[in-house]
Amino acid sequence: AWLRICERLKDEVGDVEYRMWIQRITLGALDEDEITLYLPERFLRDWVRAQYGQRLQSLWREESSSVQHVELKIDKKIQRINEQTHRAVERQVEVASTATIGEMAHDDAVALEHDELPAFASNIEMRNDLSVPLDRRFTFDNFVVGKPNEFAYACAGRVADHPASPGFNPLFLYGGVGLGKTHLMHAIGLKLMSRGNISVAYMSAEKFMYRFIASMQSKSQMEFKEQLRSVDVLMIDDLQFLIGKNSTQEEFFHTFNALVDAGRQIIVSADKSPSDLSGLEDRLRTRLGCGMVADIHATTFELRISILEAKAKASGTPVPPKVLEYLAHKITTNVRELEGALNRLIAHADLVGRPVTLESTQDVLKDMLKAHERRVTIDEIQRKVVEHFNIRLTDMSSARRARAVARPRQIAMYLAKQLTSRSLPEIGRKFGNRDHTTVMHAVNRVAELMEQDPGLAESVELLKHMLES
Ligand code: ADP
Ligand code: MG
Predict the structure, then answer these.
(1) Strand locations in 242-321, DSSP E?
(2) How many distinct structural domains can be found in the chain?
(3) Mutate to test the pocket of ligand 1, among 132, 137, 179, 188 (most ligand atoms within 8 A of CB)
(4) Residue 345 C-alpha to ligand 2 middle, in angstroms?
(5) Is 349 inside a domain boundary?
(6) Residues framing ligand 1 (Cβ under 6 A)
(7) 204 CA to middle of ligand 2, Å?
(8) Could you tell which of 140, 183, 186 is best to mutate to test the pocket of ligand 1, judged by most ligand atoms within 8 Å of the CB?
(9) Do 16 and 148 belong to one domain?
(10) Which of 260, 289, 318 represents a domain boundary (last residue)?
(11) Which residue's CA is the closest to the ligand 1 atom numbered 23?
(12) One domain for residues 258 and 121
């Protein structure tokens, strides 16, 4: 019966409302005359009761005439788990002394293996505004809504209008690259700030980590913590970056709890759902999934067309529908690429002073696909070959003639000729200033050997494949 009721409600209220509210109900006790439904938060319970209470009751009555009353309760179990986490969290905060945090941060800095880090870190002015500036174009109005993103859009809108409602805190947005996560986060921030006195901090998880480490190195971690804990809304983009960065995760976890406990809104994006982000600590994943989790799916052809139409219109340059269809067919990966292709077409049309046509589009796109092709460098080829044959890099330019180094050297020259657009003299220069005739000889010789020796041919093909992928 409950399933039928859910299905009917879904039809009545639509997918978005359904996922936002109804789907969070858990079926409890079924008595003769009373049905008990649970919701994880008081706020959600009150909302569902106000919006859908009557309807739930009448639907139950239709299923079973003996039902007198539908009771909506808060799910104590989930509540208790929440409280336990809170208490555990408080203990953690007390235990974590400054010294250990400092050491852990060092591990993250090492894990990062980022050469520029020390220079970068010391450049950070900790007194600076915490947030990275928001992109003014990333508004709700400029976001094109379709089936794949309507739920995330609705959730983002809801949080922008009512920040820190318990059932929506944190808001966790996830989906593939270039599907609009950052856009939606900025849209939330812009809308909140347009309504006045509210402090919003937006930054990537990467930036969060840099700042955290920088605050350690400049001994201003208290200041960093205080700044973070003083915002009304904290948005962290691309959280998957924190995988394997354990002390930064730890710091984020504490920040997260402090803010949520203080009734501030947290918004996080990632490329996967909390449960699929293995590599994040369990307790962090659990808390990330406690609010609203909204996914953005890959675009459909329809959505791509709508987006292209909107962007073409905004550009002011007329683009024929045939061209938009062509683009929506060709570029299916993500919205960023789609946008990039359209922008190129328009820029090209402006430059040559001719309108966008299907022919010009095919031409320009061909160039674009070519530019996307991976370019292999001679250095890369040399490194791969040296690694494969277990010789030294210096042997690539040395004068040694021993077969064990001369043959790999010839193979590297052959690959350089095949995989790059370098001329014979240019290749020769990269191999210890050898003459172009030497390179030509090497290229021919390897081709010959490949025909005679299937084992060698296979090695060369394998190298080629590895270099090209
Ligand atoms: P993500 O953060 O998910 O990788 P972005 O938010 O950076 O993706 O989006 C990439 C680009 O595509 C941005 O320029 C953004 O404005 C645009 N974009 C993505 N989805 C939409 C949409 N539904 N409507 C309009 N523009 C979009
Ligand atoms: Mg992004």
Answers:
(1) 265-270, 292-296
(2) 4
(3) 179
(4) 24
(5) yes
(6) 138, 142-144, 149, 175, 177-183, 307, 335-336, 339
(7) 8
(8) 183
(9) no
(10) 289
(11) 144
(12) yes
Axis-axis angle for helices 321-330, 335-352 (nearest 10):
140
ipTM of the complex: 0.99
Structure-token pair, residue 83: 């409280």
Q: Are 390 and 377 in contact (CB under 8 A)?
A: no
User: The CATH number of the domain where 343 resides is what?
Assistant: 1.10.8.60
Residues 443 and 309 in one domain: no
Please check whether residue 395 is in contact with residue 408, taking contact to mean a CB–CB distance below 8 angstroms.
yes
Adjacency order of strands within the sheet including 200-204 = 200-204, 233-237, 265-270, 171-175, 292-296
Closest ligand 1 atom, residue 338 Cα:
12
Q: Which ligand is nearest to the CA of 132?
A: 2
Collapsed DSSP state (helix, strand, coil) of residue 202:
strand
Atom of ligand 1 nearest to the CA of 177: 4
Considering the domain architecture, whether residues 266 and 415 belong to the same structural domain is answered as no
Domain that holds residue 406: 378-468
pLDDT tens, position by position, 235-283: 999 999 999 899 999 999 999 999 999 999 999 999 999 999 988 999 9
Pairing of strands 26-30, 34-39: antiparallel
Beta strand spans in 31-107 (E): 34-39, 69-74
Tell me, yes or no, whether 234 and 307 share the same domain: no
Instruction: Convert the pLDDT of each residue in 323-343 to its tens digit.
Output: 999 999 888 888 999 999 999
Residue nearest to atom 1 of ligand 1 (CA): 178
Please report the atom of ligand 1 found closest to the CA of residue 145. 23
CATH of the domain at 433: 1.10.1750.10
pLDDT tens, residue by residue, 91-133: 444 444 333 444 455 555 554 444 334 333 333 333 347 888 8
The alpha carbon of 237 and the centre of ligand 2 are apart by a number of angstroms equal to 7
Distance of CA 112 to the CA centre of its chain: 18
Residues 164 and 237 in one domain: yes
What CATH number has the domain bearing residue 255? 3.40.50.300
